[in-house]
Amino acid sequence: MDFSDYIIFADESGDHGMDKIDPEYPVFVLVFCVFAKKEYSEIVEPAVRRLKFEFFGHDGIILHEREIRKQEPPFEFLRTDKVLRERFYGAIGDIVAQIPMRVIASVIDKNRHREKYSDPWNPYEVAMHFCMEKLCGRMVAGGESGKLHHVLFESRGDKEDRSLELEFRRVTANQAQWGYRKVDFTRCGFEPVFLSKKGNHAGHQISDMIARPLGLRALRPDQPNRAVDKIWDKVVDWKIFP
Q1: Which of 72, 89, 106 is nearest to 218 (CA)?
Q2: Which contacts of 44-53 are long-range, i.e. CB under 8 A and separated by 24 or more positions?
Q3: In the chain, which end has fewer C-beta atoms inside a 10 angstrom radius, N or C?
């Protein structure tokens, strides 16, 4: 089987558990960032690397949304240097606005999910099914049928990775259909890949930085959200469930 011309990075925001729901952020978000491999290697990776050289002097740094938002090391300079802070946020905004990518996102409103279903499905499984459905449709429409597509997830530990891989393979083998619409996932080949955050992949860092802002857009659609405004034209599929 030939390899796809695209690489897909998956990242999440929020807790997918249903036992305890954070009242400040009661959603689970799964994001697929889809890059053409040629553009990813020639445009995306160099752009992220240049930003790291400019602000840190090396490219070993990992851009992590939570640490940036909380201004934790190695981003503590954001607390003390307003000029540098504005430059840094502006540079990140420019990257996500300018790089070529397509975004598929699913947001699970956990309170509504629990209210609607007496035995609610795992939010991660629901979100993944939606994202995979949209990904498959777009790859087929783009002439990528019969090719092998790698979906890169950040590793969350052996147990969780095994559970996610099992569900991923159930979905892509057409064994986890739900809803009125049936999708033939076998039109494309899909393979999950689990990578450590320490792998320092530009695609995971970009998907990490946009996942929470998309969750906030779903929670508070009328609130100003510059981060989402920067990438909204790249969001090709967007689902809030239920």
Answers
A1: 106
A2: 44/99, 44/100, 44/101, 44/202, 44/203, 44/206, 45/202, 47/95, 47/98, 47/99, 47/202, 48/95, 48/202, 48/205, 48/206, 49/202, 51/91, 51/92, 51/95
A3: N
Alpha helices in the chain (DSSP H): 37-39, 45-56, 65-69, 77-80, 82-98, 110-116, 123-141, 158-172, 202-219, 226-231
CA–CA distance, 194 with 180 (Å, rounded to integer) = 31
pLDDT, tens digit, 9 for 90 and up, residues 120-148: 888 988 999 999 999 999 999 999 999 99
List, as one string, the DSSP characters of 129-168. Answer: HHHHHHHHHHHHHTT-TTSEEEEEEE---HHHHHHHHHHH
Which one-letter DSSP state was computed for residue 121?
A: P
Q: Which residue ranges in the chain fall short of pLDDT 70?
A: 176-181
Instruction: Kindly state the DSSP code that residue 234 receives in the 8-state scheme.
Output: G
| Amino acid at the residue 61 | I
Domains along the chain? 6-241 (3.30.420.10)
Tokens (6 digits) for 83 = 């000029």
pLDDT digits (tens, 9 = 90+) for 170-210: 889 888 666 556 788 889 999 999 999 888 999 999 999 99
